[in-house]
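Each lists sequence, tokenised fold; shown next:
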Amino acid sequence: MMYYFLNNRLDANSSGIEHAEVKRLKLFKQKGVPAKIVMCEYNRLAHRNLPLYEMTDDDYVNMFDFFAGTVTFPAKVVTVSDLSIPDEYQIREVDKGYEVYDGNRKTMRITMFPNGSVDTIDYFNGDGNHTKQDFYDTRGFKSMTQMYDTADGHLIYEQFSRPNNTVYYETSYEKRPNSYPATNIQLTDTHGKMHSLMNTGQAFTIMLDELNEQDGDEISTFISDRSNCSNVPMINMKTPARKIEHFHNIHFRDFGDPNSPITYPSISNNELLSKTDLVITPSQRQADDMTRRLRTQVPIVSIPVGIVPDEQLNTRHIPMSERMPGKIVAAARLFYEKRLDDAINAFAKAYRENTMLSFDIYGYGNGRDGLKEEKMLKQLVKKLGLENVVQFKGYTQDMETVYNTAELLVLSSRYEGAPLAIVEAQSHGVPVIAYDINYGPADLIQDGQSGFIVPSGHVDDLAAKIKEYFANPALMEQLNEGAYESAKRFSSDNVWKYWEKYVINA
């Protein structure tokens, strides 16, 4: 039986959900159970990112790769000499690529990947207007073309093509007063059948059904990990399959009130929910809240998200004496829900009494809103005069080094589903001070043994615990060992028992 973990995309700077999926994939492979990660968004860079997660093409299926026939594809380098550029045109080298001219008129702008292969090609008409852009997969073929309105530059049409340049997926966009929505999608499936669709979710359902059919008579299991984009497409599958929703976040609108309106249609709509075989949450408290709220016969169970590899559990414990004195870290996206301004303000209060402290924040900002939260946080640090001791470190793949040198992790989120950073920090002997929120910290931190839980939003309490912790070296050593001990609950064998009980042998 094949297990598919469904999500939207795999980037170099992925979020906790993707990291949790990768950990689960490794666990399934370790236990000899076949599994793959399946993504629904176009991502021409994904195969370049796979090695970052110790994954191969055999571990990953993207919807656009699936319909293009490029789930596996031999990588090659496409140079400027491989392009169909008329001999009479002039090619000039510029920063990160080339510009192509017909006399004095610029016709093309070519950007290159660092390995010397073509990245994108922009085309210009006789008036100098940008008319279209080709996007190349990192493996060396044109995979998508966008066409633009020359009047205002908005996107009007997209074509997705196979390496042989045949088109299998087309999207049309229509200009509205305040937006440019996709109004029609034309898909040619792997059987050559044409579909006229309204959204990518419908295309994802078709892909999941075809993927399921390829497995033959076996009943495969599909686990949706990204609630807002893969739950409903999975539920709408027409072929026989086992369908599991795995929530990584809260399931209601008001993060402080579990009785507020349900967020996702896949559980608020009883007809959709009834087509699901199992619902998984990261914590027992969320499973209990969801069971009381939904009143459904669909089983709702809790399975830990954090998995600590055996090699990490067996590694040498690093005492506080070998760590960077006073080093506090946070591992969180620079987004509103992470409430990092509370962590910064609490640090500022603690720093006034202990100038040995420093605070490193690891995470990326939200480019979709112009990095609004990131700018606010940096302005706050400047206002508090903490630029020398509070550092924004950006995203890193090497959190192991970060945790092995840190003395404390702070988590000040408004809400969470599965704060993976807590388990990862504890596995490296780093105690955690966190707000008591829905959901996660209270289930993962043993208060007074592996860290501390403080009331949500109480900055003074957060600061007081930071001060208390660093003022007591004996307590620091005690919680250091307590963190290592707490991580044992999330060993591969312990977590696998949950998967066997509720999913594998159910």
User: Anything to note?
Assistant: The chain has three domains: 3-72+200-302, 80-197, 310-490. The chain is about 30% helix and 25% strand. The mean pLDDT is 96.
